[in-house]
Amino acid sequence: MLIAQKQLQEKDSQLKIGQEQLNHMYEQACGQLDSAKKQHTVDFAKINDCERDLFSARAEIDSLTNNAKLSRDEALELVTRERSTLLVRTKTLVDESENTKHQYEQAVPVQS
Predict the structure, then answer these.
(1) Model confidence, pTM
(2) CA dist., res. 84 & res. 79, Å (int)
(3) What distance in Å separates the CA atoms of residue 49 and residue 53, rounded to the nearest whole number?
(4) Conformational region of residue 108, where left means phi above 0, alpha means psi within -120 to 50, and beta covers everything else
(5) Along the 112 residues of the chain, how does pLDDT read in single tens digits?
(6) DSSP string of the chain, one letter each residue
(7) How far is CA 37 from CA 3, 23, 26, 73, 88, in A?
(8) What share of the chain is helix, strand, coil (3-state, %, to 5)?
(9) Which pLDDT value is given to residue 14?
């Protein structure tokens, strides 16, 4: 019976050591899990910041693209307006030249 009692004590001692190791491993795992949760929260916040920055950059690109298009349209409108003005001036000069030529021909008799 003494042997059985000694074996029982050894098994009990091993069980306690195993339980302590298990508790220690559990506490370690809980600590790692808490750390991972905190890191997840930090990473999630960084992702949100990046998405917000991306959205802002896309909005700025769209705005600049619209401004560039508007600038091209404005430039085309200006060039078209200037062209029309030049065409009108050219016609006026041609008309004045023809009138001057006609007046000259009437003022100076044609000599044959």
Answers:
(1) 0.49
(2) 9
(3) 6
(4) beta
(5) 788 888 889 999 999 999 999 999 999 999 999 999 999 999 999 999 999 999 999 999 988 888 777 788 888 898 999 999 999 999 999 999 999 988 888 887 766 5
(6) -HHHHHHHHHHHHHHHHHHHHHHHHHHHHHHHHHHHHHHHHHHHHHHHHHHHHHHHHHHHHHHHHHHHHHHHHHHHHHHHHHHHHHHHHHHHHHHHHHHHHHHHHHHSPPP-
(7) 50, 21, 16, 53, 76
(8) 95, 0, 5
(9) 94
Q: Which two tokens stand for residue 103?
A: 């007046």
Per-residue pLDDT, 107: 81
Compute φ and ψ for 110, nearest 5 degrees: -70, 125
Opening angle at CA 93, ends 88 and 95, nearest 5: 95
